[in-house]
Protein 1
Amino acid sequence: MSDEHDYQGPATIRAEDRELSTEVVLRGFFQPIDGKYRWYGRAAADEAIDELAAGRKTAVLLRTSDGEAPATLSEPDPWGRYRITGTGKPPFAVDFPLQD
């Protein structure tokens, strides 16, 4: 973890009975308007993720050494890294309690 990221390191993406190992960079924030914790980031460019997501939104389970959470893979950036978003308890440690 760095001052810029809440989590940076290895992760597993699970969807459609497949598990893919990847590297992710994640961060999050508490949204006071709706009272929810929102987290987001990118998965490293990987041909297996390209095949799984095929450029479309894909529901996945993202797992790190700190936990797991449902997430959505969405559009890849120009470097082939897929955006990951989630709401609620993230798959990384936070310094305050969160409800599921």
Protein 2
Amino acid sequence: MTRMIIVRRVADLRAHVSGWRGRGESVGLVPTMGALHDGHLSLVRRAKDDNVRAVATIFVNPTQFGPNEDLSAYPRDEAGDAAKLESVGCDLLFAPDVSEMYPAGFATSVSVAGITDHLDGIARPGHFGGVATIVAKLLLQALPDRAYFGEKDYQQLQVIKRLARDLDMPVEICGVPTVREADGLALSSRNRYLSAAERQIAGLLPRALAEAAQLLADGRAAAPLLTDIEGRLIAAGFGSVDYIALCDGMSLEPLAAARPGSRIFAAARIGRTRLIDNWPVL
């Protein structure tokens, strides 16, 4: 197996990608913040399936953390992450520092309106501005043929699709199905914060969403059903629920009843861990 290249400067990233594309080799990009798990690796595997080359990025982006979110506590393990990436055939890891991505005098931001007015756009003010800005930079720095994002962060996926489309970026944005534990819990870097007892409780979230999705598909009204789910989560041991909502799968506008393409979304806190998930309804 060819050894994975690690670069930290945009110029070096561009040089390698330019060389590959000059030889007619397609490139898939997988942006991450590190602390990699099998969900991330599934994105890299998909990138390798679809393209000749796969590039992953690791950058803990400070601009997408809110004032009450601890940037310094976000898990970091570059050496371990690099080994995982290499094991699934990643060709290059781009791991810049903050000064490379936000040099002195940086004064530009990217925002996506409408689709960010709901769900985490309300629960985490400013978050998607940071996401849109850093993803726009990474797409322009790497100029991949395709970029891959997990459906667990479904709102983020839709924001990035809109971003790329509205700015005429020559890249295909590909969503990849959520990877789950045996009990249905979506894989997340933040799951490592769960205690053993909290981990047992956490599995209720996907089960409740799956059950609700079936009832909504059968014609149940959304409001009482969503209220019931919130009560079940709190009774089971979740500390708080940021939202449970039925939304259109494209615009993410709230819905009173299910229709084709709708999804149910949830964000809830257990201990110091915030879990998000979503489930297709129809």
